[in-house]
């Protein structure tokens, strides 16, 4: 079976052992080292490590002062953490549809969703390609809104040569399957010294120095063991991205012209880091998406559906006081993509022959 994800952190062993021997397990020098490396990769003055991508988003929205009565505009086509983070702050969510080309929030749809209560735009750089920051950044500036980038899937991606997470406040996940992982973890990137200071306080119970509290905080800290797992990956980030890009290119060349299949594209000016290689199975394909999944599983090719439903389309969110009444029909592009999307293996552990196998099996399954 060729799996949809593979985790390889074996080269972290010496650093993890170093932490075990040091006896310093909670946030300390290894976390600081990880933060320095991450800030360099993201091209920002600050990187604040936290214990998940979700808490990165929550802490950011809290540090920006968002709360009840404020509105945050985001995409309905994302992992639930994006939505949960907004709900946790007490703010109201407004959704805007996506564009089919990048699977990310459509700046024109964002513009029409802005109200006098809007405080932030929260695009998600889905699958490893940034949203249309060329339009979102000026839109946020024009309306005096915060831009919070959910860059959980996009470490190393760029827009106009600038790294994801350096346009607004960047929120990254280091979950086990993400392009850079610490097992569980997250990072916030920013150039804003005051915001970074507030985030560091929030992360550690609002504490400036021992038992001197400046604000009501939380425990969002990363452990030394987790930081040690991530450090070697930052050192070889270019190599990891290059492998994903090579695999994506091989998939795109091999799958070109497969009937019923729409392939993902790297848009001009954007460098895609291929967290996922996501195709669309159109209505004229020989197999429906779910039939193709079964067929590929039998043929030994792992796949994933990210995400089968719009994020609000679950009973627990219906009638939620912070979610306006919405239905998938209000977001036709996202609704259609959720029905058609399928991710194929693209991770760095694949060999050239693995990718050839994926191409061959998909083509055969679809009668190409
Ligand atoms: C993974 C992910 C998150 C949440 O990160 P965790 O580290 O799992 O908390 C948020 N947003 C998106 C788009 C993600 O893919």
From TrEMBL:
Q: Which domain of life is it from?
A: Bacteria
> What cofactors does the UniProt entry give for this protein?
pyridoxal 5'-phosphate
- Entry's Pfam families? DegT_DnrJ_EryC1
Source organism phylogeny: Bacteria, Bacillati, Actinomycetota, Actinomycetes, Pseudonocardiales
- Give the InterPro entries listed for this entry: DegT/StrS_aminotransferase, PyrdxlP-dep_Trfase, PyrdxlP-dep_Trfase_major, PyrdxlP-dep_Trfase_small
The record's listing under Gene3D superfamilies reads: Aspartate Aminotransferase, domain 1 (3.90.1150.10), Type I PLP-dependent aspartate aminotransferase-like (Major domain) (3.40.640.10)
Protein name per UniProt: dTDP-4-amino-4,6-dideoxygalactose transaminase
**Family designation:** Belongs to the DegT/DnrJ/EryC1 family.
Write out the entry's keywords from A to Z: Antibiotic biosynthesis, Pyridoxal phosphate
